[in-house]
Amino acid sequence: MIDKVFNKTISKQFEFDEEVASVFDDMLDRSVPFYKQMQKLSISFANNFLEDGSNVYDLGCSTASTLIELSKSSKYNLNLVGIDNSNAMLERASKKAKAFGVEIKLLNADIFDVDLKDAKVVFSNYTLQFIRPLNREKLVKKIYDSLEDGGVFIFSEKLVSKNSFLNKQFIDEYYSFKKTQGYSEFEISQKREALENVLIPYTEDENKKMIEDAGFKHCETVFKWVNFALFIAIK
Ligand SMILES: C[S@@+](CC[C@H](N)C(=O)[O-])C[C@H]1O[C@@H](n2cnc3c(N)ncnc32)[C@H](O)[C@@H]1O
Ligand SMILES: O=C(O)C(=O)C[C@]1(C(=O)O)C=C[C@@H](O)C=C1
Description:
By secondary structure, the chain is of the alpha/beta class. Helix content is 44%, strand content 21%.
């Protein structure tokens, strides 16, 4: 279904509710530049660290697109676990996984409450940005502790620039991108307001520092378009 959520006046903050979930795949595809390419890259990098029986977690899995695509492309027999606290998202995830014949354990839970046992790969795409900063650092430490040695944390985030002049250009470029994707100025400004104080982006350096502070040996930006990036961190 086509995303028209912000085509009408909205007075509440952004939520992953039934209305957003019902159009979410289209929303991501049209709102995140190079979404599909970044997803393909994250899967391709993950495959290099996997083997039969590996545990793979997706934190904030939404409709489970990443785990479904991973399962379709991987030659390994994997234990796939998707975690999300939006029931509306997980209902879609479950239907999609069934339709593709992919076995995924879907957990309706807060990421903080789940024990991520012996993880080989942890994905979290565009989700850390929705976690309050102090908790975000704690979550990354928890991910680090859960990973096996040599395991990887693969994550994507919206970014800000620490240079205010460039940051303004980041935003302008991003809004031009959204217009090319068919969103109107009204939809763009409605969504911007709804995301205020809900989506809190870090700079690229802040993301890397958070990863290094948690103990990761190495963190690389593997893809970047203006204010969106894909990172891979190795334990
Ligand atoms: C932007 S979406 C993630 C998109 C998805 N990773 C993808 O690439 O298709 C963020 C998701 O994180 C979930 N989420 C946010 N905070 C969470 C939390 N504390 N625990 C579990 N899920 C959470 C939301 O319900 C939402 O589905
Ligand atoms: O539309 C925006 O402004 C966005 O920031 C895109 C974005 C994201 O980056 O997570 C915001 C909310 C939805 O989860 C989907 C995409």
